[in-house]
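dude i think i finally got it to work??
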Amino acid sequence: MTFMAVILLFIFFVLFFLYFWGLNPHMVTVFYLPEQSLSYPAAMIVIGCIIIGLILGFGAHIYSTMAGWMKHWSRDRTEKKQREISTIYREGVGRLLSGDLKKARVLLKKALDRDPRRVDTLIAMASLASQEGNPSEALESLRKALDIDQKSMEVLFKTAAIQEETGHDDEAIAAYQALIALEKDNRKALRSLRDLYMKHDNWKEALESQRQVLKAGPGANRIAQEKEMLLYLRYEVAQQAISSGGADEAKSELKDILRQKADFAPAQVSLGDAYITLGRGDDAVKTWQDGYKKLGKGVFLERLENYFMQREDPSSLLNFFRGQVIEQGDDLLFRIFYGKLCLRLEMIDEAKEQLQAVESSGVESSQVHLLLAETYRRCREPEQAIIEYQKALGISKRLQLSCVCEKCQHVTSEWKSRCPACGEWDTSSLIDRKLFQKARPLELDKMIIHHGEQKEWQGA
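look at this
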């Protein structure tokens, strides 16, 4: 506004004041106490109010302008400080990723000193402490970060990972549960929680977590895998039920599992176990016999052998073995178990015949050699050599055949429904099982029952 404009505005205001005063010459009395008052011309009171209003408005404008300027100055200063801290933080993280832990600590500590409530710096400090082998410091940093931001998924995931690495699985479970409470469909947290439950054989909880994984909707490339995992966990829950008094419910569950996955050997094995628990031995025998005929796995023959031997009824088992050899004499795996049973029953000649038929196929198997060594020992072969075999191969009184995981090659002394090393189901089988299944003996003679054994073992 120019000086001339100000003069004109002032003149206009004076003229307006004089005009207004001329129209309102009377006095106005204003009481400010019961007996105290002031009298002024009406025009002066109106003009005074206008002037006071203008002064107050101008003061408010000045205050607003100053406040905005201070706020802008404070924001610029804060942003500048945060940019400086971010630069230090990024350099510290870069050092951390490159393995320069000492320099990374100096930089991250500097960034944290300048802003103790910066969550990403606290997370980086936790990663640094973890790499330095100091999990307690890492967890303390993460606790501070969680106090600042209780809904930070990254902090909770990092906390769970460190707790799991240090063996504090209960705390890790709590962290994953907190994650799921924040985001119920977080598949990564659900799978991690499921795996922790599986680690501790908490199969019911693992099954519930897996159902939530499927409910969350895994990707199309994983849906089949997740459904299969659900089946395996259902199996484990059913297997636990057999030993805890729920064999009847377990039986129904195992049958349903087999309807969905007919080649799942553990379910077939455990179904027989459930029948045994329910006192239905004949159904168990049929289940295991059908399982071997369908899947060709030695665990079914082991179960049959143990069942009949515990009942002191080897004749029924021998009849089954002999009938199968006549029907499928090229099944070398079956012949191995048949030979082992004969050896256990001191039917040495018949054992030798079966085992030599396997050896004649050209398969090189330490387990076959072991059984043959025991056979020769019982045929009065030099005992010292047999003792060496026993020491080297760990032969047991039951002549137990070792099993191997077809996934990771982990060897166990007995069949396992789930590999203790890699955690996969239905991968345990007799060592060299595939070699026996593919090979064929040179000559399949009609089976001969030796020295009156038919009368001895076969009932009337």
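The radius of gyration is 44 Å.
im so relieved honestly
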